[in-house]
Amino acid sequence: MSTPTSAPSPQPPRLRVAPSPTGDPHVGTAYMSLFNLAFARRHGGQFVLRVEDTDRARFRADSEAQLYDTLHWLGVTWDEGPDLGGPYAPYRQSERLETYGPIIERLRAEGKAYYCWCSSERLAQMREEQQKSKQSATGYDRMCLGKTAQERAALPGFSDTPVVRMLVPDDVELTFTDLIRGTMSAPRPDDQVIRKADGFPTYHLAVVVDDHEMGITHVVRGEEWISSTPKHRLLYRQLGWPEPAWVHMPLLRNADRSKISKRKNPAAALTWFREQGYLPEALVNFLCLLGYPPIIEADGSEREVLTFDEFVAGFDFAKVNPVGPIFDIKKLDWLNGVKIRELTPQELASRLLPFLQEAGVLSSNPSLGELARLAKVSALIQPRLVKLSDAAVLVAPFYVADDAVPIAQDARAGLAEDAAAVLDAGIAALEGVPADEEDLLASTPRWNHEAIESALRAALVEEMGLKPKFAFGPLRTAISGQRVSPPLFESMEILGRCSTLKRLRTLRACR
Ligand code: GLU
Q1: How far is the CA of 334 from the centre of ligand 1 (A)?
Q2: pLDDT digits (tens, 9 = 90+) for 190-213
Q3: Which has more pLDDT, 196 or 136?
Q4: Beta strand 302-303 with 295-296: parallel, antiparallel or unpaired?
Q5: What gap in Å lies between CA 214 and CA 170, rounded to an integer?
Q6: What positions carry a catalytic annotation?
Q7: Ligand 1 nearest atom to the CA of residue 28, by list position
Q8: 259: CB partners within 8 A, 6+ apart
Q9: Of 308, 366, 498, 506, whose CA–CA distance to 423 is shortest?
């Protein structure tokens, strides 16, 4: 009896991101990684990181480490890559040259590619003439096609080291299916160079060979590659390899709809977000919403605040809107604030710590007391914080000597005539609020923000008849040195009675 055969289960998908290490990692690389990763995770597949470093002129040695660093910071994980290895190693194209050589040779031997000895001067001249004569067929004029080196050497513009070009046939297919965009068509490709004079393959050859060899099932990349897809599909056809599915993500745009570039926009570099104090989970949330709808709740309402796991759970390329999404930093600021408020004060404190150390507010080796205070101060500033880098100026006053609080110029200038009288009354009022150690048996702390507030309100607002703004301004200046500071009474509670009084007396002494 024969056993019934079940239908073969489809292979889990394999996706990749393939950045070129040419400088600070671009925010587009993170965007592409998240969408690739979401599909791979949703369907139980794998996600590969491949480094495309065949462009030796633009190569930057430190860029690969920065790439790992920023992607790890974002929480992007990959299953195979140059740093992890994997069944298809190496994952760095410069280490795969032996793979490309025989394939280029095979295409050449089969008449699907040919040597080209044209010098760059000759190619420039050819292009200039094509432009002048407004020729409809532009691109390489095939001067070298069918010639031996000797035959070609007899003609002008010869260079000793040839490149290899694809021979694009007349019937090259120009339409293809894109999982986001449906049927697409692209212009007829030029006889693209596939091996450069330095012996390195070009991106076009290497990307096809590697995607094939690494078993990539879905090529997900930026829309700038749409025009290259017919070339890549031609190579798959000529090499007799099965084609992957094609997905071209929209390009991220500035508010004026121009393309986000590292030259024009600091936010194009991934490192910028970290330096600015954006939380990785806020940036991930923000990127997941670019060209992608928010979560629809059971009651039909929309929710934009989401986690990557929630994004993965409903992920579908068909939901991507191909119209270039606007990179709106204000929205990121809003999301960052929301994610900051989702942290526990303790967690916020540990995220703030490196920023405070960088700003010199705390040393590289803070004491336990300083850290305990930081958790309290973090809770205080949490409701208003937009970026982690905004915290230093708010936190700094909690870590200075009480008789040396730096007073900002605008705060000093804002002190009115009656500042001395206000400070005197404030000091007297607070002297009446007992310190905790004076009443160890009390069940709640005596020096707390409510007691502080009611003592000060009674003395300054009720008795002196001051408006709260004028009553508390000088006290705020004494405590923080700033016109704008974390909530005053809570700040006094954190500083403690002794420090608070000392700060008030110090400012009073200079009036
Ligand atoms: N190395 C290319 C880039 O950096 C990858 C394009 C692709 O994913 O095919 O944009």
Answers
A1: 31
A2: 999 999 999 999 999 999 999 999
A3: 196
A4: antiparallel
A5: 30
A6: 262
A7: 10
A8: 251, 252, 253
A9: 506
